[in-house]
Amino acid sequence: MSSKPSEVDASAGRNVPLDDVSYKILTVLRDNGRISIAALADLVGISRASAYSRVEALVRDGVITGFSARVDPARAGLSICALVFVTVHPQSWVPFREKVVAMPDVEYCVITTGEHDAMVLIRATDVGGVHEFATGVIAMLPEVRTVVSVVVLDEVVRKPFVLPTDIPERPETSRLGMTRWTPAAAGRDAMAARG
Predict the structure, then answer these.
(1) 44 by DSSP, 3-state: which?
(2) DSSP letters spanning 93-158
(3) Which tens digit of pLDDT belongs to each residue from 31-55?
(4) pTM of this prediction?
(5) What GO molecular functions are on record for this protein (predicted)?
């Protein structure tokens, strides 16, 4: 099993059809990424050759993007976790993304819908580190309009990834009651037609 990620094209890994055996392999690897191919094959119920070729195919297809150790951030010296919600000026996405990717203290960043445009997860040695990042780093970017930071009190669930097989069947119910819909401004359709 290769320990380095393979080079795949940009479309690889998107909607790759997986069977039950592939999902079993991914479930086992999620719990123990260092498992031997022989042990993996035994747990999944396939031959070693099949386990090896399937893992290599999952890597080649971009489903598996790499293998790494999971580290307890607090035990590694980063006991404070914070979520920094960022609103970005229009037309500033490309430079904002480039700058965030280059920030070594950013563990995770996602573009979001709703009140803010992005959520950045950072870790620090103390609350002062969160303050320095929020006010002295991210808020100082010319692409950023507003910043709201929230210190995380407890990380309740943190999984390396979730698979479709993890999601339980749920009865069909009306989901509209749980969603807040914001209607378009009056005349918006007419404005779009004129534009």
Answers:
(1) helix
(2) HHHHHHHHHT-TTEEEEEE-SSS-SEEEEEEESSHHHHHHHIIIIITTSTTEEEEEEEEES-----
(3) 999 999 999 999 999 999 999 999 9
(4) 0.72
(5) sequence-specific DNA binding
Q: Are 1 and 7 in contact (CB under 8 A)?
A: no
Number of neighbours of residue 124 by Cβ within 10 angstroms: 20
Structure-token pair, residue 150:
């929230």
The full set of domain ranges for the chain reads 1-69, 80-152
Q: How many CB atoms lie within 10 A of CB 32?
A: 11
* 63, 18 contact by CB (below 8 A): yes
CATH architecture of 80-152: 2-Layer Sandwich (3.30)
Cβ–Cβ under 8 Å, residues 130 and 144: no
Q: What band does 186 get if pLDDT is binned at 50, 70 and 90? A: low
Query: By 3-state DSSP, what share of the chain in percent is helix, strand and coil, each rounded to 5?
Result: 35, 15, 50
Interacting residues of 124 by C-beta distance below 8 A, sequence separation 6+: 78, 80, 82, 105, 130, 132, 133
